[in-house]
Amino acid sequence: MNRSLVDRVKGILRLEADVYEEVEADTTALPQAAMVVAAGAVASGIGALGGGPLGMITHLIFTFIGWLIWAVVSYFVGTRVFGGKATWDQVLRTLGFAQAPHLFGILAIIPLLGGLVGFAAGLWAIATSVVAIRQSLDLTTEKAVLTAVVSVLIILMLMAIPATLFGIGALAFMLGS
Description:
78% helix, 7 helices, single chain, 177 residues, mainly alpha
């Protein structure tokens, strides 16, 4: 059964395993996954405001880069460490759809309520991502959670390298001035 984009997003938000399986199997669903990622990035960018048009474009670019990195690292951790069975594009598609809770990021613009909604959407995105990893890699829930945790730790370490180098470089520049 091939659902519409809206029906797929609803199913993802409801954590319906069969919808994740459908997205995993649908080799034509990558543009839809990219639309979910883009719409979530725009919604959360509007919710955050303040960055202007350049901030929105930068947010959109970094959201796509983050999605790709998250999918690649999760794929390698899931298949190499936890014995998952998938192709990397299956993981990419399901993790793209798993970004659907970020559509609610637009509500962050509402004073007081916005922060709570943003926090809840973040927790929801963790849940949708774990289900996406579980379904796309055919793992147990426990192995999917471990794949997500190990992947996040690897990504944080990868992010720390340039941050550390930049920080040291900036410190050396300031001391040399």
